[in-house]
Amino acid sequence: MCGIVGIIGTESVTQRILAALKRLEYRGYDSAGISTINKQKIARCRAAGKLSNLEQELNNGTLSGTIGIGHTRWATHGVPNVENAHPHVAGKVAVVHNGIIENYQQLKEEFADKGVLMQTETDTEVVAHLASQYLEAGMQPTEMMQALLSKIRGAFALLIMTADHPDVLLAARKSSPLAIAHGDGEMFLGSDALALAHLSRKISYLEDGDWAIITKDEAKIYNLENEVIDRPILITEASDKTPDKGKYRHYMEKEIHEQPEVIGYTLASYRNPTTGKITLPDFAFSPLKLPKLTIVAAGTSFYAGMVAKYWFEKLARIPTEVDIASEFRYRNPVLIENGASLFISQSGESLDTLMAQRYARDNGQNIISLVNVPESTIARESDTVLRTLAGPEISVASTKAFTTQLITLLTMAVHWGQLRGTLSDEMASSIMDNLTEMPSLLAAIFSDDLDWGSVSKELASSRDVIYLGRGINFPIALEGALKLKEVSYIHAEGYAAGEMKHGPIALLEKGVPVVMVAPHDEWFEKTSSNLKEALARGARVVLLSDDKGIEKLHEAATWVFRMPEVHQMLTPILYSLPVQLLAYHTARQKGTEIDQPRNLAKSV
Ligand code: G6P
């Protein structure tokens, strides 16, 4: 959603806040700002757009102080301009906020009745006014926080500072994440440990409902009942290195190329390469008796869940349903007692996924999560955590997190299939042996040096692109279309190939590119018929297939990309690569901001 940072200490904070914000830019880049307290006054610098704009603004002026707060925004309420950029200031108070104040309209009206008008379109500004009003009425910071938190509703991570108390930073957390890093005579706050790891590795996490008064020497944390509470100090695993693109032009390109390696790491963390034995973390239930598995996720992680449904049902015969996180808790899902719910999230912080997870927990589900950030909120609130070892994923469009999710989910389905007796040892070995070859198969696709130039030029000048797949590769068609939309801004739709005739075929006219994800598998004959239907309407086909498939269909396709042959259960992992590369190369042709596409954020 947004990234927030605060520092209180004895040395100048501005550049360090900026550096921490850079590590949080994945959370939003619509605008950014920093406030400090200088000579008992709030000073502020803000800029619309990316942090580099704020950096320039900061160079034009001086913003000094030993206490400060900063923000990088993903706009919810109010257009992304300077006025709506955080920090928001009222009187002697400055506030940064990640989340949504749900009752802001009502609070705005209450202020308007008193003749106080808001200067911005944001939901956050009311928080600054409330804090200022309470302090002006004579409340001390502790009382002010209690009054404020009983007045506002919604989701928030808040940092507040006031010129009258330049020796304290105030913080509060409900649903949105907030971490404290403990320094030596300095304290740091941020949306996640990654933002702070280069400042101090000693991290404590605020729990939901916590708030805190922070001086340069200590953090006094209160819970929802306003009782002082201890939150443990952990040593974070988050990297303190500044990410870099290495030899690549974009993080997306780098992360696509890292897949052979990180897939190898992830697989080796679950399967002993010598004995072939699969070891998963302990579950609070027996997979043998599992009546149903519910998978919930958002975005690309949701498509990983869709692929996993095929695996869990086919290999382990577990009834599996997959839900979009933002829909799940609103449809009153039937959750079978002692069932398990699996939440997939690269960041471990997507708010809809977290809320769905809490809903499932409240409804008696065993909670499993599959995350790339092991200290994330979703991981911390799970009974069992499965990890992808993808390393930090910086590009907003997810690539290596997706394929490592798939690796983990397939390993899990195979293991459970063996335990439940629904998958023969022979079949399990055949899948897993082939899976261990996945890193080299993917690496071979890079060294094949396929020509993405001509097809990406064509896609870059198209208005619509259709992606079709069947069976286990239907979700890869969806993911391919999503990748293209995200990074190239071209309208793309993914469909189950057999569904095309029920509507989407109306979009087809001469020349429309249709990307067929078509390995030679049990669905191939059907997919070929759908390809012919598209051809008959003038579509130009981009065929992703293997030797056998290409032999049968190459004459029908304008562009052909040859993939190695693998066990059909593995094709979604393998075919993720060409759809990622198609999107990446098309975006390069278009010259879009590939790593930070407009309107998106990595964690919302
Ligand atoms: C955002 C990102 C997507 C991502 C989705 C889910 O929308 O732009 O790339 O797939 O969130 O994120 P998660 O961290 O929960 O996997």
In short:
With 604 residues, the chain is α/β, with parallel strands linked by helices. The chain contains 20 helices and 25 strands. The protein is 36% helix and 22% strand.
Q: What does this molecule look like?
A:
This protein is an alpha/beta fold. Helix content is 36%, strand content 22%. It is built from 20 helices and 25 strands. A hairpin with a 6-residue loop joins strand 7 and strand 8. 6-O-phosphono-alpha-D-glucopyranose (G6P) binds at residues 298-301, 345-347, 350, 353, 396-398, 600, 602-604.
What's the end-to-end separation, in Å?
A: 4 Å
Q: Stretches where pLDDT falls below 50 for ≥5 residues? A: none
Radius of gyration (CA) equals 26 Å
Biggest sheet: strands, sense, closure? 8 strands, antiparallel
Q: Could you tell me the mean pLDDT?
A: 96
Helix content: 25-40%
Task: Name the structural class.
Answer: alpha/beta
The number of helical segments is 20
Question: Which cofactors or ions or other ligands sit in this model?
Answer: 6-O-phosphono-alpha-D-glucopyranose
Attribute tags:
8-stranded antiparallel sheet; binds 6-O-phosphono-alpha-D-glucopyranose; globular; 36% helix; 604 residues; 25 strands; 7-stranded antiparallel sheet; alpha/beta
